[in-house]
Amino acid sequence: MFDQVLWFAARGAGIVSLLLATAVVCLGLMTALRFERREWPRFLTVELHRSIALISVIFVAIHVVTAVLDPYASLGVFAAIVPFASSYRPLDVAFGVISLYLVTAVLLTSLIRDRLSQRTWRAVHWLAYAAWPMAVFHSLTAGSDAFAPWMLALVAACCATVLGVLIWRWSVVWPGRRELADVVDRSSFRQEPGKRPARKPVR
Q1: What does the alpha-carbon distance between residue 42 and residue 39 come to, in Å, rounded to a whole number?
Q2: How far apart are CA 181 and CA 131, in angstroms?
Q3: Separation of alpha carbons 146 and 40, rounded Å
Q4: What is the rounded distance in angstroms from the CA atom of residue 31 to the CA atom of residue 43?
């Protein structure tokens, strides 16, 4: 009975972690886009992004602890912290371990953001976008019910949501970049070396 509780807790916490990670990625994209509406101020996106990220870490911790204690997987502490050390689906578990490390790096650098340069913080923060697809792969392959129809539908919904926000972001960012490039191109002066610009005749 207790073994079943551990299995359900590990699997349930993992699924909730995936849903929360999807929300964090989407809110991060919205924050980078500086999304703002009268009914949705910008600070709300930022605060939700931070709060959900912290909650997701709690569920990831529950997922890891219960997976280590679950006798079915026989994961062990060593396999939970060292990629490819697990005897149970080593590749699938390794993606989860690496994803955990990437999320931890993002979280720690966010806590000491004032002590880091903007470039360093931004470079580490981009790791979150690598952690999410690894978490998706881990969710699809590590669990015994990974390819159940309801699980496939849930993962498909997460992927569709992130893809939709990405398309929306680039539909806003890309035209703006092209307009800026056109303005710079029109305002820049191009001439061959040694030649002076032609003057318009004075009438």
Answers
A1: 10
A2: 32
A3: 36
A4: 9
67: which residues sit within 8 A by CB, 6+ positions away?
10, 14, 73, 75, 80
How is 83-129 classified by DSSP, letter by letter? TT--SSSHHHHHHHHHHHHHHHHHHHHHHTGGGS-HHHHHHHHTTHH
Domain of 66 in residue numbering reads as: 2-186
Q: Assess if residue 193 is contained within a domain.
A: no
Per-residue pLDDT at 1 exceeds 90: no
Angle ∠(182,186,187) on CA atoms, nearest 5: 115
Condensed to tens digits (0 to 9), the pLDDT of residues 83-118 reads 888 888 889 899 999 998 988 888 888 888 888 888
| Domains of the chain: total | 1
Break the chain down into helix, strand, coil percent, rounded to 5: 75, 0, 25
Look up the pTM and report it: 0.77
- Identify whether 194 is part of a domain: no
Three-class secondary structure of residue 193 per DSSP: coil
